[in-house]
């Protein structure tokens, strides 16, 4: 076992455990913070595997944008952040979720582990580096890449269309 | 670190004429966003509607130009990509071929009718079907403040244009990633539009949330399947996928079946096939009625276009792996859709279950695995689309106390008081049932005969089940007709409000096309048949 394997096992365990904690904790803010840990250490996994660009994009997009968005949403909606007994899920739903999640993981593991257990990749000489990814994005994938900007614009307009608020003027009855 | 020397950057070859229809729709949508920002509120509605309609008609003209190709330039074929000089491996993002152009043309035309029904104002300032403040709590002070301040929801027109843009790309993409992005571009506006109904707000918000959550799940399935298929073939292009399956078992053979299965789940969700149909009745009922009609017609057309491409170009060589699963889905869809439509008491839910059953009939045509089957599916999508837009247009006119009266009992005796409206609706019901002299008969005959002709024993079984299910749905539609014409109106009778020219036009065109395709179907059948060849 090389140092790299060891680091990967450690970072991977942190990712998995914090992901579990994110879905099991009863505090919304705790869930968001565990999600932050999980996504951040997933970026670590990519770095260990020699894909620094993917790792950095993971950090920027998920840790930088999405988790911050979750925290902002919590702040702006003034949602109660403590555990809420009246809206907590019933026990049978939790059990069902555990069974479904476990079954999906088992199925994927049964499928992927035998296939990929013996696969060998030379991490010191990765086949695809940042240059190749850049060429692919701006060469063959330029069309989906441009489409994504349309998608973001649609999301923006949709947010405006849904959340338009007409504020009351001073002295006007509600 | 990077030991592999980077090859010289190769630019994509783009045939701009071939993608002109999509560019026109996208730019009309972008201009619509600017109109939203700069045009005065009084004029905004008229500008938005005319911009959208003109853009769509121009896009249709462009589609015809590409398809007819008067200068013999040869716009059809693969575009948006290049052939690698060293490996002779071609990677192209878009396939401009018969089915793609046919789908683009029909989606654009159905989009025009959809926009015209959405534009209905009934004398108000903004579109009547949409609420000015979607996120506020139903019945709250901020909602009534928004209504009093005269806020409009004219954003729905650019959003619809973006949805049409995504729908045009969906059946045109030549790879799984492009298909995924198109799926998102077409879905996101629909999630928002279905939450903006002016009346019965809670139902609408519930519909929007349900559609969004289930849609997000199905997108995740699609993406996961894409990842598995990439692991299998080492490429997401349909041509490479088909070749990888044909050249024989690879090391990653175990990934093919789950990958194909997950990708199909994502696509079958969009057409509302059983068991991925749970969202359909709720969303069809909760969404603003013109949006429901638009969704039922155009989303179905786009998604079936994508299913056709995946089944005939990408995974055609792996057919024995996934056909049985899709056959079971088709049978379930026909049976569940038609049986459950019998028990419905709400007009919009009834039409939703009817659309599920129709998705099953169309799947029978997909499973014929023949050019004839492709042609029949293309014809079916156009025939069903125009009928369903007209039907939902009529549903939006039948009102009581200002709101839509969608409960079946409220439609009793409508035929005696409004014979023209009820007559048109009854005719559309006959078309859904597949009675001769309507487009429904021709399209059902097309898919079933294709299934019997080339589908083998499975195809014949499917066609028999399809005919039995059609017979069940005849009962449902006949009950609506009997209710409208042969029962007495209740005391608090509903009224049919008089729509504007735009809505009248789109209902009339939808009904006339249903009639025309039933009486003289040959020209469109011929066109669909000639358009049924995929490019690889």
UniProtKB/TrEMBL annotation, chain A:
Q: What is its main location?
A: membrane
According to its UniProt record, where is this protein located?
Cell membrane
Q: What Pfam families is this protein classified in?
A: Oxidored_q3
- Mind telling me which Gene3D superfamilies this protein's record contains? NADH-ubiquinone/plastoquinone oxidoreductase chain 6, subunit NuoJ
Example of a GO MF term = quinone binding
- Keywords, sorted A to Z: Cell membrane, Membrane, NAD, Quinone, Transmembrane, Transmembrane helix
TM spans (from-to): 6-24, 31-49, 55-74, 95-117, 147-167
The chemistry this enzyme catalyses reads: a quinone + NADH + 5 H(+)(in) = a quinol + NAD(+) + 4 H(+)(out)
Annotated EC: 7.1.1.-
Q: Give the UniProt family note.
A: Belongs to the complex I subunit 6 family.
Q: What does this protein do?
A: NDH-1 shuttles electrons from NADH, via FMN and iron-sulfur (Fe-S) centers, to quinones in the respiratory chain. Couples the redox reaction to proton translocation (for every two electrons transferred, four hydrogen ions are translocated across the cytoplasmic membrane), and thus conserves the redox energy in a proton gradient.
Write down what this protein is called: NADH-quinone oxidoreductase subunit J
UniProtKB/TrEMBL annotation, chain B:
Q: Which GO terms describe its biological process?
A: ATP synthesis coupled electron transport
Transmembrane ranges?
Answer: 16-39, 46-68, 100-119, 176-197, 209-230, 250-269, 290-312, 324-343, 350-369, 375-398, 418-442, 462-486, 498-520
- As recorded in Swiss-Prot or TrEMBL, the protein's gene is named nuoN
Q: In this protein, which residues make up the domain named NADH:quinone oxidoreductase/Mrp antiporter transmembrane? A: 174-468
Question: Which PANTHER family does the annotation name?
Answer: NADH DEHYDROGENASE
Q: What is this protein called?
A: NADH-quinone oxidoreductase subunit N
- Membrane topology for this entry? Multi-pass membrane protein
E.C. number(s) listed in UniProt? 7.1.1.-
Organism field: Intrasporangium oryzae NRRL B-24470
Query: Where, subcellularly, is it found?
Result: Cell membrane; Endomembrane system; Membrane
GO CC, sorted alphabetically, is: endomembrane system; plasma membrane
């Amino acid at each position: 076992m090389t140092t790299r394997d060891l680091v990967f096992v450690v970072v991977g365990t942190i990712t998995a455990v914090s992901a579990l904690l994110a879905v099991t904790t009863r505090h919304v803010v705790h869930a968001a913070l565990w999600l932050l840990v999980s996504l951040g250490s997933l970026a670590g996994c990519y770095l260990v595997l020699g894909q620094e660009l993917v790792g950095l994009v993971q950090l920027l997009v998920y840790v930088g944008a999405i988790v911050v968005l979750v925290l902002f949403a919590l702040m702006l909606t003034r949602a109660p952040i403590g555990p809420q007994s009246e809206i907590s899920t019933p026990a049978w739903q939790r059990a069902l979720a555990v069974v479904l999640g476990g079954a999906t993981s088992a199925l994927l593991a049964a499928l992927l582990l035998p296939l990929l257990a013996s696969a060998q990749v030379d991490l010191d000489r990765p086949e695809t580096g940042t240059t190749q990814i850049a060429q692919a994005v701006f060469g063959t994938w330029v069309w989906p890449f441009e489409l994504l900007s349309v998608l973001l614009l649609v999301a923006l307009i949709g947010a405006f269309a849904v959340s338009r608020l007409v504020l009351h003027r001073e002295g006007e009855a509600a | 670190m990077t030991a592999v020397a980077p090859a010289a950057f190769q630019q994509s070859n783009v045939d701009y004429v071939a993608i002109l229809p999509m560019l026109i729709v996208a730019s009309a949508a972008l201009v619509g966003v600017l109109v939203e920002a700069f045009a005065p509120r009084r004029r905004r509605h008229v500008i938005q509607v005319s911009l959208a309609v003109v853009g769509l008609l121009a896009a249709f003209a462009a589609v015809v130009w590409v398809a007819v190709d008067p200068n013999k330039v040869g716009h059809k074929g693969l575009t948006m990509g290049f052939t690698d000089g060293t490996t002779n491996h071609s990677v192209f993002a878009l396939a401009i071929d018969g089915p793609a152009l046919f789908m683009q043309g029909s989606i654009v035309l159905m989009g025009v009718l959809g926009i015209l029904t959405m534009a209905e104002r009934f004398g108000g300032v903004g579109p009547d079907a949409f609420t000015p403040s979607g996120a506020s709590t139903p019945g709250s002070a901020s909602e009534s403040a928004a209504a009093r301040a005269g806020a409009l929801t004219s954003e729905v027109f650019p959003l619809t244009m973006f949805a049409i843009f995504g729908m045009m790309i969906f059946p045109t993409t030549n790879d799984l990633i492009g298909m995924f992005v198109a799926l998102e571009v077409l879905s996101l506006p629909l999630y928002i539009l279905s939450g903006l109904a002016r009346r019965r707000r809670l139902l609408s918000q519930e519909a929007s949330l349900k559609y969004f959550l289930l849609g997000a799940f199905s997108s995740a399935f699609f993406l996961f399947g894409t990842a598995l298929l990439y692991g299998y073939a080492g490429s997401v292009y349909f041509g490479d996928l088909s070749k990888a399956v044909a050249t024989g078992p690879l090391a990653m053979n175990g990934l093919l079946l789950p990958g194909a299965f997950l990708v199909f789940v994502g696509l079958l969700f969009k057409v509302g096939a059983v068991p991925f149909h749970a969202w359909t009745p709720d969303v069809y009922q909760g969404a603003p009625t013109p949006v429901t009609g638009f969704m039922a017609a155009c989303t179905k057309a786009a998604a079936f276009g994508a299913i056709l491409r995946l089944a005939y170009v990408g995974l055609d060589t792996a057919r024995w792996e996934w056909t049985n699963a899709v056959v079971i889905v088709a049978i379930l869809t026909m049976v569940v859709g038609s049986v459950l439509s019998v028990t419905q008491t709400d007009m919009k839910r009834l039409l939703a279950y009817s659309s599920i059953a129709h998705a099953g009939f169309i799947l029978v045509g997909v499973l014929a695995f023949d050019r004839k089957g492709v042609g029949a599916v293309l014809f079916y999508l156009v025939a069903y689309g125009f009928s369903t837009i007209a039907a939902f247009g009529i549903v939006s006119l039948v009102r009581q106390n200002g709101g839509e009266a969608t409960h079946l009992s409220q439609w009793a005796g409508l035929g005696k008081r409004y014979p023209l409206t009820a007559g048109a609706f009854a005719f559309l019901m006959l078309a859904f049932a597949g009675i001769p002299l309507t487009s429904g008969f021709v399209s059902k005959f097309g898919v079933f005969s294709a299934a019997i002709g080339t589908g083998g024993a499975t195809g014949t079984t499917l066609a028999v089940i399809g005919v039995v299910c059609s017979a069940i749905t005849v009962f449902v539609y006949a009950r609506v007709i009997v209710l409208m014409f042969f029962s007495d109106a209740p005391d608090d009778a509903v009224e049919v409000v008089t729509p504007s020219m735009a809505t009248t036009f789109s209902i009339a065109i939808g009904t006339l096309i249903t009639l025309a395709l039933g009486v003289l179907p040959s020209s469109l059948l011929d066109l669909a048949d000639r358009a049924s060849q995929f490019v690889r």
